Amino acid sequence: MIKTSNKRFSAFDQFISVLFALFLRELKTRFGEKRFGAFFVIAEPLLHVMFLLFIFVFIRSRMMPQVSFELFLITGLIPFFIFKNIVMGLMSSIDANKALFAYRPVKPIDTYITRTILEVIIYMVVFSVIIFAFGFFGGLDVSIARPLEVLGVFCLIVLMGFSFGIIASLLAQVFPITKMIVGIVMSVLYFLSGIMYPLWIIPSNYLSHLQWNPLLHLVELFRENFFSHYPKVEGIDLFYPLIITAFALAISLYFYRYRRLALAAKS
Questions:
Q1: pLDDT of residue 77 exceeding 60
Q2: 186 in a domain, yes or no?
Q3: Interhelix angle 108-136/147-174, nearest 10 degrees
Q4: Do 73 and 160 contact (CB within 8 A), yes or no?
Q5: Residue 234: left (phi > 0), alpha (psi -120 to 50), or beta?
């Protein structure tokens, strides 16, 4: 019994060590050898989000009296970018790390997990910086109405990105055109996920079609729990994206198990 326990602990310890090593490698790849590499990795999404905020806050008129439009926009942009970057990052992770699969402890799933963690950390930092700036310099109320619910929705967004990212990665190994198709789909989702407009301005007959998009539900639920007086939209619930995510995760892990040896052999 003791030997079995030690063996299991050793395997888990090896798994954590592999993840940590891959994480450091991803950091080095993303940050580069330059002294200010880490700054630019954080600054790139930060400047992107701030530019969009400038366009929609200072150029466009405000559309809602219930919540601050600055916070409305940032609580849509960050969840979407996390989902998008996880999917896109996982889709290219196999090709970027194929040389490492020659080492037995390194598995393709390790690269998926590592890239997901890195994207989450980057955008959590970006979100925190922007929220702090809005609260400290802008004088906005940035308190979160229901923190646990916000965290739960955030985790579901990450898990959904992880699931679809693995599926996209497996498809891209067989059909390289998948990368282009997924890029187009992400551009479409950018406009169909309620990021830049409140759902209550959409006519009900059109909204019913938009609600087939599970990401739209999660973005809206993120906002509902972030703001204390956010208008609820009929038809938005957690059950639908939860079922889609569970189904996508089951499919992704099943086909990963079936294809994992072929992925590692591509090295």
A1: yes
A2: yes
A3: 140
A4: no
A5: beta
Is the predicted pLDDT of residue 107 greater than 80, yes or no?
A: yes
Tokens of 167: 């599926």
Q: Rounded distance, CA 264 to CA 104, Å?
A: 9
Please report the beta strands in the chain, taking only residues with DSSP state E, as ranges in sequence order.
none
Which whole-number Å values give the CA distances from 76 to 120, 143, 158, in the listed order? 15, 16, 14
Is the whole model's pTM more than 0.70, yes or no?
yes
Q: What percent of the chain has pLDDT over 70?
A: 81
**Could you tell me if residue 14 is inside a domain?**
no
Write the pLDDT tens digit of every residue in 35-44: 555 556 566 6
Domain count, the chain: 1
For residue 189, being part of any structural domain is answered with yes
Three-state SS at 132: helix
Q: Stretch 96-103: mean pLDDT, rounded?
A: 79
Q: 114 in a domain, yes or no?
A: yes
Structural contact between residues 168 and 87, judged by C-beta atoms closer than 8 angstroms: yes
Q: Specify whether the CB–CB gap between 226 and 150 falls below 8 A.
A: yes
- Which range marks the domain in which residue 69 is found? 41-265
